[in-house]
Design a protein that fits this description.
5-stranded parallel beta sheet, 14 helices, Rossmann fold, 323 residues, 2 domains, two-stranded antiparallel sheet, Helicase, Ruva Protein, domain 3, 15% strand, 44% helix, alpha/beta
Length: 323
C-alpha cells in the first residue's frame, strides 16, 4: 500500500459528513471566504484530487492551504515556484555520502500530505512537469528509483490571474490533472474589517487546532469511493462532456479524465451531504469548478467575450437531467 496502511475501512456517510463539516467550520474561523468555496477545497481532498487557486495576491490562498493541513493534522510543505527552481528542488535528489560511500536519497518538499505550490506558473515547464507523476500516481521517480507518497496527498497550486510577465502558462495536460479550480475573492466589508483586526492582533491561523486526523480523511475517502452512482447519472456526466466537445464556444472540450474528476467530486459532495448515492444536483454543483479550467475557448468566442465558465453553464442548461 502506498500509504503504509494495510487496509482502509470506509465509515458511514453520516460519519464522513461530520468530518467534512468539522473541517469546513474550522476553516471558516481562519479563512475569510464563502463557505461553499471552503467546502469545495475539502471535497477535493476527499476526492483524492488536487486544487488550483487562481486569485489576486493577499486574499488568503496560502492561509487556506495551511489551515486545511492544520485542521486535519497533516504534514505541510511549501515551494515558492521561481524561474530558477529545478525539478529536484521539488522531488528530492540523490546525494553522495562519503561515510557510506553510497548515494542517499534526500526527499524534497513533495513528500508531504499537503504541498503548496505557490505561483506555480512562474517556474519553467520542466519544473512544473516534476509534479505530474506525483499528482497522477502519488509517487516520485528519481534516477530510476520510485518512491511512494503518503496518502492523502494534495497539491494546492496558486496563480495570479492578472500578472503574466515572466510566467509560463500551465499546459493543458497539467491543468487537466487539477481536479478543481477556485477563487477566494475579496471578503465583504464587515468580514474584511474583522480580518484586519484579527491579523493585526492574533492571527486565527496561529491558534487553529486539528479537528480530525489522517485516519478520518482516509476513511472519508473510502466512503466517497463507495458511493453508488446510478447508470443514468453516469450517462449524464458523459453527456455534459460531449456537449463541451461540440460547443461552438470551445476549441477544446472536456476529456474523459475530466469526467472521472467530475464524478469523484460529485461522490465526495454526496458523502458531505451524508448520502450513499449521487444525485444530478451533486454533478451540477461542482461542474463549473471541475470543468472550466480544462476548457479552451475558441478565438472568435473569446473575442466576443465568452468564457469557459459560460460554456459549462450552457452545457448544464442544455443537457437533459435524468429523473
Amino acid at each position: 500500500m502506498r500509504d503504509g496502511v494495510t487496509a482502509r475501512s470506509a465509515v458511514p456517510p453520516a460519519a464522513a459528513a461530520e468530518v467534512v463539516a468539522r473541517v469546513v467550520d474550522n476553516l471558516e474561523s481562519a479563512v475569510r471566504a464563502p463557505r461553499e468555496t471552503l467546502e469545495l477545497s475539502v471535497l477535493v481532498l476527499v476526492a483524492e484530487g488536487h486544487l488550483i487557486v487562481e486569485d489576486f495576491p493577499g486574499v488568503g490562498k496560502t492561509v487556506l492551504a495551511k489551515s486545511l493541513a492544520r485542521s486535519l493534522h497533516l504534514s505541510f510543505s511549501r515551494v515558492q515556484f521561481t524561474p530558477d527552481l529545478l525539478p529536484t528542488d521539488v522531488t528530492g535528489v540523490n546525494v553522495f555520502n562519503q561515510q557510506t560511500n553510497a548515494f542517499e536519497f534526500r526527499p524534497g518538499p513533495v513528500f508531504a500530505n499537503v504541498l503548496l505550490a505557490d505561483e506555480i506558473n512562474r517556474a519553467s515547464p520542466k519544473t512544473q512537469s516534476a509534479l505530474l507523476e506525483a499528482m497522477q500516481e502519488a509517487q516520485v521517480t528519481v534516477d530510476g528509483a520510485t518512491y511512494a507518497l503518503e496518502a492523502p496527498f494534495l497539491v494546492v497550486a496558486t496563480q495570479n490571474p492578472i500578472e503574466y510577465e515572466g510566467t509560463y502558462p500551465l499546459p493543458e495536460a497539467q491543468l487537466d490533472r487539477f481536479t478543481a479550480r477556485l477563487s477566494l475573492g475579496y471578503p465583504p466589508l464587515a468580514e474584511e474589517a474583522r480580518m484586519l483586526q484579527e491579523q493585526t492582533t492574533q492571527p486565527p491561523l496561529d491558534r487553529l487546532e486539528p479537528v480530525a486526523g489522517r485516519a478520518d480523511v482516509l476513511a472519508a475517502i473510502e466512503a466517497a469511493k463507495s458511493v453508488y452512482v446510478e447508470e443514468s447519472v453516469g450517462r449524464y456526466v458523459v453527456a455534459l462532456l460531449r456537449h463541451t466537445r461540440a460547443s461552438s464556444l470551445l476549441a477544446l472540450g472536456a476529456s474523459p479524465r475530466a469526467g472521472i474528476a467530475l464524478l469523484r467530486m460529485a461522490k465526495a459532495r454526496a458523502v458531505a451531504a451524508a448520502r450513499d448515492y449521487v444525485l444530478p444536483e451533486d454533478v451540477q454543483a461542482v461542474a463549473e469548478a471541475v470543468l472550466a479550467h480544462r476548457l479552451i475557448v475558441a478565438p472568435e468566442a473569446r473575442a466576443a467575450g465568452a468564457t469557459a465558465e459560460e460554456a459549462v453553464r450552457e452545457a448544464l442548461e442544455q443537457t437533459p437531467v435524468p429523473v
